[in-house]
């Protein structure tokens, strides 16, 4: 189809094949020349979205060398009932357990 200038120029719709005034025709997002009743904007789902990067690991990680973490110490405000704290160890008892088969 050749483009001509002037108010009497006509064009053929690429979708329906109908004849429209060339000044009224519109070009779609995919390059088709269509009449005003066939034109629709590009759907937002067809636009590409920016990729959100996943969090990355540390460049040069080191293990935790805190004294409390390595020794497994427990700090309490008061002794639980029936417990004995000796040094770094906690021993507790809350009654008897009987297993029968």
Structure, described:
- This protein has one helix spanning 67-71, and strands spanning 10-12, 19-21, 26-27, 33-34, 83-86, 89-92.
- The protein has 101 residues and is mainly beta.
- A two-stranded antiparallel sheet has the order 1-2.
- The chain is elongated, with a radius of gyration of 39 Å.
- The mean pLDDT is 75.
Q: For the terminal residues, how far apart are their CA atoms?
A: 94 Å
Percent of residues in beta strands = 15-25%
Assign a percent range to the helix content: under 10%
The count of strands amounts to 6
Strand order of the largest sheet: 1-2
- Please state the structural category: mainly beta
The number of helical runs is 1
Q: What string, H for helix and E for strand, traces the elements in order?
A: EEEEHEE
Largest pleated sheet:
2 strands, antiparallel
Task: Return Rg in Å.
Answer: 39 Å
Mean pLDDT score: 75
Q: What characteristic shape results from the CA principal axes?
A: elongated
Uncertain segments: none
Write the layout of secondary structure elements.
Blueprint: E1 10-12, E2 19-21, E3 26-27, E4 33-34, H1 67-71, E5 83-86, E6 89-92
Antiparallel strand pairs: 1-2, 3-4, 5-6
Keywords summarizing the entry:
two-stranded antiparallel ribbon, mainly beta, 18% strand, 101 residues, 6 strands
Describe what is shown at a glance.
The protein is mainly beta. Helices cover 5% and strands 18% of the residues. The chain has a domain at 10-41.
């Amino acid at each position: 189809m050749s483009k001509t200038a002037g108010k009497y120029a006509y064009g053929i719709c690429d979708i329906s094949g109908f004849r429209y005034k060339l000044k009224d025709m519109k070009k779609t997002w995919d390059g088709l020349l269509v009449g005003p009743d066939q034109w629709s904007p590009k759907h937002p789902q067809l636009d590409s979205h920016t990729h959100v990067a996943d969090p990355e690991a540390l460049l040069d990680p080191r293990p935790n060398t805190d004294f409390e973490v390595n020794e497994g110490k427990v700090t309490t405000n008061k002794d639980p009932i029936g417990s004995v704290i000796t040094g770094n160890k906690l021993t507790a008892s809350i009654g008897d357990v009987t297993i029968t088969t």
